[in-house]
Design a protein that fits this description.
Oligomer: heterodimer
Strand content of chain B: over 45%
Shape of chain A: globular
Distance between the termini of chain A: 32 Å
Structural class of chain B: mainly beta
Strand content of chain A: over 45%
Radius of gyration of chain A: 13 Å
Number of helices of chain B: 0
Largest sheet of chain A: 7 strands, mixed
Largest interface: A-B, 27 and 22 residues
Order of helices and strands of chain B: EEEEEEEEEEE
Helix content of chain B: under 10%
Largest sheet of chain B: 6 strands, mixed
Structural class of chain A: mainly beta
Order of helices and strands of chain A: EEEEEEEEEEE
Helix content of chain A: under 10%
Number of strands of chain A: 11
């Protein structure tokens, strides 16, 4: 048990809609990262937040945005959903620069 | 762009045989991490290697980081059915503290 939770576990949306995914980290985990994992692929880095500031971003368009809150929770927002956005979305929180704890993920299906 | 390649993509072994997965980066890495993901699960952190030429062991698992800090390997001795899953390497690029680049993973199947 990593202590990292995500909600919802599953979600179905249609093209063009917007979605907000949530992550709750352990107390003291100041860094949270979000990843997109397509079926059969490795996780792709979306962005990372450290103490509520973005601290690195992968090759994702601006319609992918995030927020980190003082209570160690965070959000991933995706606007104008596309079919290719269907994937498992993982958040990972870190107490240190070394260890990263992944949540169980949110499986998003875009129809 | 920066890439991390992993081979093989799949490996089927008989229980008791050894297994190795290799990871190669197109650029020098500041460190590399290894994860295991069971079917339907999420990646679980195994280890981080930081130093050039570093070797770390966890029971039957041996992790190596290359001298040039561009490649790494994970070797499992005498596989067990509990080793089944997909093993990912993930490299952190120098100068970009946040970004972690994952390989495509090696899926290990172990026949009892």
């Amino acid at each position: 048990e990593t202590g990292v939770t995500q909600s919802p576990t599953h979600l179905i949306k249609t093209r063009g809609q917007q979605v907000t995914l949530r992550c709750s980290s352990q107390s003291g985990h100041n860094t949270v990262s979000w990843y997109q994992q397509a079926l059969g692929q490795g996780p792709q880095f979306i962005f990372q937040y450290y103490r509520e500031e973005e601290n690195g971003r992968g090759n994702f368009p601006p319609r992918f945005s995030g927020l980190q809150f003082p209570n160690y929770s965070s959000e991933l927002n995706v606007n104008a959903l596309e079919l290719d956005d269907s994937a498992l979305y993982l958040c990972a929180s870190s107490p240190t620069a070394e260890t990263q704890y992944f949540g169980p993920g949110t499986r998003l299906l875009v129809l | 762009g920066q890439q991390v390649m992993q081979i093989p993509q799949y490996q089927h072994v008989q229980e008791g045989e050894d297994f190795t997965t290799y990871c190669n980066s197109s650029t020098t890495l500041s460190n590399i991490q290894w994860y295991k993901q069971r079917p339907g699960g999420h990646p679980v952190f195994l280890i981080q290697l930081v130093k050039s030429g570093e070797v770390k062991k966890q029971k039957r698992l041996t992790f190596q980081f290359g001298e040039a800090k561009k490649n790494s390997s994970l070797h499992i001795t005498a596989t067990q059915t509990t080793d089944v899953g997909t093993y990912f390497c993930a490299g952190r690029v120098s100068g970009n503290t946040g970004k972690l680049i994952f390989g495509q993973g090696t899926t290990l199947q172990v026949k009892p």
